[in-house]
């Protein structure tokens, strides 16, 4: 029995050693990851303006000097790019994608350290490191700053009109780290394997909530676009944001037969005042005093946003209104 | 034995395999644990949407999306106070599957920023468990919320930074918390609920409870505190903080003294016969040594709750049971008509004395007190210093007789003890027609007054100061001067000329006049509330300003007037007085009760009738003394000089 006990003790001791070495591996690991990402990070200097900083961040995506960064006012002039080892280059903008607010800047160099873009989307709570030159702290051959955090949420930027001053309304990684800082845009987000999982986005304020967003554009969304630009293929920008249609082609309250309460306040709630008899709305059973909450998935805050949203929908398409009738929520489909 | 060996070997192999294979590093394991913890409470979290809200101030928009948690199977949810802000037309709850239901507010815990909602439809949301979960400072905690657009789960991980914050009611965490987390759970790594996140800032940090979003300082109300109050809220009754009505001797709550300077009239303390001079020893069995500790204990008690308080009065120890109130009748500030000064006796062991330096004509004290009298006791309580005397009189029971014991000089070297009884008068009733000599400015004709510009770093506001000419290295001027800071309306052309117009009257009265403009040409911004304080601090360094003689006012009756009211009322303690033109539109700020420890006096310039303006009545009801007078510059300046009166 004692022998067995001794063997057991040895096993436990062994396990502890292995456990200890994996936590040592954790620290050594982070150091290697950090250095890898920093070596591919670049500092970009360009145009400034009244109160706007004239720098941002970027990262190498090819060994031949292709750099992913944000498409911003900093690139209004030919940018100067400084690598991690301190070498300075004049950068050339070889491509951009306005919907993603992505730009690819190229420098004339070879055999540069670069990062692979991941093709999978990270999960909520996954640990990440953000490497950027926030506040322009680093210059010359000083390495870019590293911040630690995790993925707070994986979601799509709210499609509400006017919520975000950006043409992009696709998937984003919301970050549990303070990524939103001057000069951080264009920085890279890496996972525990050292792959780039995102690019820090431009400073963005959620006009609905009134808060500044900490977010990154996912690498799997950037990857095909970057590949196309690096390979020299042309991109066709696809419009993702709703644009108003000509008045005679879009929906309007008059055609539907809906009369709203007088729009006298700065922001009048979207209450239905009257429904014209025999109208499309009457047939669909829209009633006076209904409060229009949503058109499709678009939130309606007031009459103005109702009118603007209807202008973006083709008249031939059906619309689904979500209304509040007293304390009930009712869904109404309308087809002209 | 063989079986044992086989078992042990298998165990060994299994351990080794486990250790060598997965090799999930600590970070990945942690990520998995955080995800699992969030998933455990996610089914109880719904989104809250507000509709029909007018735009108004605050960092976070008033109709920002927030969340709520289900707390029972009867369609009840708890949300944060943000759902009430700006009284929305409609509140809608959105479940995980996208189903929507309207909801109404049943009751509010006003102290803890929580609101109980009842959903119209049963959304089938699993209730969260409110239990007492043990926790340690420094442990990992996770905030869980939902993103507005598609309702996906959002998390922010941090540590438990502190307990009993905000005067005893909240846990503090460094997780980044913004509107999508307010009303949502704060859990430990196992997914057990520690508390519900609410927007909050310490009470001297302004009115915007969302101002600290994503700052690394966030607050959550602990689950047990919520559980005990849920029955009250379910009955439809609001929970309010409990008030007792005792006023500390010192402005500094950290001073090691639990002595009571005065008791607010018609308060629970007054009803229990607590008296000035009593020293609080313990509350509900917990011993206290300072007013901060008293506030910390009372901070967690509700109106309607009874507390047990031990006090020491002279040599006696008394225990009283007091039921806390949700409000105390407002102050009706009183005055005697004297100015006084602390006088050191020269003997380190003897307490200082309070000496009367001046007496107002036509005041309650005019017939009974004289200059150089030493005030020994009021109603038996020893008078130790001017500040506590000021508070005592200011918050005295309206128009009651007070008994004074006074030491008065008799003849050449003699001194006699004199007893007088004086009935205090309401401050609002008496305007000082003439000042006693102690407040009159002895103008040094040799010093001429000029207008200089004042610029401060990082402050875009232009200010022009009419004050005595001083050289840079000159010592501060005595006698002390008053300060009248006037905020200009946006667009007002020549601030320098305005200041110049006041120079003569200011130099005669002994009040420095500073005209300050907004940093933006077209309007005053809420953030500038603190800029006025910086200007005062800067002027106080340059000139010898008596801080009991500082007044904020405005040049006209436009936006500058509203702003001056916001500063005077919102930043109690920076100014002793606020002078307003009756045509001014009052600002949209929370009207704080007049606090005897930082009291504010008001003067309405050029108010012709006692009924106008209509908002003056609201101010009087909250404990402010509102005096009326003509709008002559001399009258205003004389009022500024009269403010140190007791």
Low-confidence stretches of chain A: 236-240
Instruction: From the 3D structure, determine the CATH topology of the largest domain in chain A.
Output: Thrombin, subunit H
N- to C-terminal distance of chain A? 87 Å
The Cα radius of gyration of chain B reads 30 Å
- State the largest interface: A-B, 52 and 59 residues
Residue share in helix of chain B = 10-25%
Tally of DSSP helical segments of chain A? 5
Mean pLDDT of chain A: 86
Instruction: Bin the helical content of chain A.
Output: 10-25%
CATH fold annotation of the largest domain in chain B: Thrombin, subunit H
Describe the protein in words:
The complex is a heterodimer of chains A (336) and B (646). Chain A is an alpha+beta fold. Chain A has two domains: 39-230, Thrombin, subunit H, CATH 2.40.10.120; 253-334, Pdz3 Domain (Roll), CATH 2.30.42.10. Chain A is built from five helices and 21 strands. Chain A has helices at 2-40, 219-230, 253-256, 280-283, 303-311; strands at 41-45, 55-60, 66-70, 80-82, 88-90, 92-97, 102-106, 127-132, 145-156, 171-176, 188-190, 196-200, 205-206, 211-212, 215-218, 258-260, 272-275, 291-295, 298-299, 319-325, 328-334. The termini of chain A are far apart. Chain B contains twelve helices and 34 strands. In chain B, β24 (401-410) and β25 (414-423) form a beta hairpin. In chain B, 44% of the residues are buried. The model of chain B has no long low-confidence stretch (mean pLDDT 88). Chains A and B meet through α1, β9 and β14 of A and α1, α2, β5 and β8 of B.
